[in-house]
Amino acid sequence: MTVATQYKNQCYVNGKWVSSESGKTFAVTNPATGEHIADVPDMTEEEVLGAVKAAEDAFPAWSTTPPKARSDIIMKFYQLMMERTDELAKLITLENGKPLADAVTEHKYSASFMEWFAAEAMRTDGEVVTSTIPGLRNVVIRQPVGVVGIITPWNFPSAMITRKVGPALAAGCTCVVKAPSDTPLSAFALMEIAEQAGVPAGVINVISSRNSRMCAKVLCEHPVIKKISFTGSTGVGQQLAAQSASTLKKMSMELGGNAPFIVFEDADIDDAVKGAVIAKFRSSGQTCVCANRLYVHEKVYDEFTSKLADAVRAFVVGNGMDKGVTHGPLIHERAVAKVKEHVEDAVAKGAKVLVGGKPGKGNFFEPTVLVDVPVEAVVSKDETFGPLAPCFKFSSEEEVLKLANDTEYGLAGYFYSRDIGRVWRVAEALKAGMVCANSGVLSQATIPFGGIDQSGQGVEGSKMGVHEYMVTKLIAMGGLGTKY
């Protein structure tokens, strides 16, 4: 059975599997092998508008569905996802390239958002607010914002969808999801599960199109869409915000990052190396919270960089489907070119290559560790989004905090220290929406995931995530004076 027949390769609109009426399609390929996986619909503007209309029509019924009923459907969604873990993890690897073990981890992470928000659907409570006016009572309630436009990236083809769709469903919103052009098949597979879980027609609609700009423009400018949720680059996020300004949409945006990873002289070096391997090289460096700049104290610089290089030499790079592979390809040749550019720029300015440093065949690039990287290197300012660990040397806490905060971004930050006073000081001083001390892992469904400054606005996940899809309403009731 071929992938094209094993997995859904049509869009899902108003409870139906549809192709583009134009008959146009575009190809999805395996980034590890270049193999053709499937052809998916290249939808037109009119068809995107049809998806918006389907979500609009479904909103009145879904928004008034009792929270317990919504919760039950979302929990069924979670259970069905877990039953198909092996199958859907393989699909992630096929279209994204990440090793199968990482794909399994993503799938379970993706499912965890549905489990979490199934419970949060029952907790969209309001509150009673004290009145200063005699005879008046104040009640605050939360209501679904309306139809939501969701635009997701390719690096987590499943998890970035559930992280947005889960809270939208819990809040009572309906959705139009623009699937990533490089990895749309996981989105379609989730819709098959949605259908089986009992999500009503029109509540979630998933579209694919090669013309991402057209889709984004429709969703951002359409008056029916009341909120945009986007994960992607800062530049695109700025464009979406500008396009949404005319309708003053509510927005959640998780954008670019330039995460520092700091190793202080009192750190457990072996633990710091393990954390750096995760924080820098997970998914071959293609995550928004990947460490982009590694700052190491001069007293432990040689030890840390030597051990990190040894760890990187032990990586097995290849097709994510092959047994033993730890790191897969980059998503496309443009990603490879960017890593190459960053390496060459750093080396030209005095950096040295400890391991890696060269592109491989196709979409592969050798996992790379650079030492003696100068602060004026491009990688100091620009997010690489690839398997490159540039190591910078520092001598004091004050110095490294200045270096770490010298960026317009503020998504994640990591550091290692065994001094509890320093842990609190540095955690509070780092300019980032998320700070991870003595660990290279932070992503969980239970946490508020989001950044500050040019890394975006709003949060996803946690008990706060569902409120991003709701509006607050005051009901002030008069004529309620107490009679004795």
From TrEMBL:
Pathway: Amino-acid degradation; 4-aminobutanoate degradation. InterPro entries: Ald_DH/histidinol_DH, Ald_DH_C, Ald_DH_CS_CYS, Ald_DH_CS_GLU, Ald_DH_N, Aldehyde_DH_dom, Aldehyde_DH_Superfamily, Succ_semiAld_DH. Residues 17-474 form the Aldehyde dehydrogenase domain. The keyword Plastid does not apply. Transmembrane segments: none annotated. The keyword Oxidoreductase applies. The active site is at residue 254. Its EC number is 1.2.1.16. It catalyses: succinate semialdehyde + NAD(+) + H2O = succinate + NADH + 2 H(+); succinate semialdehyde + NADP(+) + H2O = succinate + NADPH + 2 H(+). One of its GO terms (biological process) is gamma-aminobutyric acid catabolic process. One of its GO terms (cellular component) is cytoplasm. Gene3D superfamilies: Aldehyde Dehydrogenase, Chain A, domain 1 (3.40.605.10), Aldehyde Dehydrogenase, Chain A, domain 2 (3.40.309.10). It is an enzyme of class 1 (oxidoreductase). It comes from the Eukaryota. Belongs to the aldehyde dehydrogenase family. This is Succinate-semialdehyde dehydrogenase. The lineage of its organism: Eukaryota, Fungi, Dikarya, Basidiomycota, Agaricomycotina.
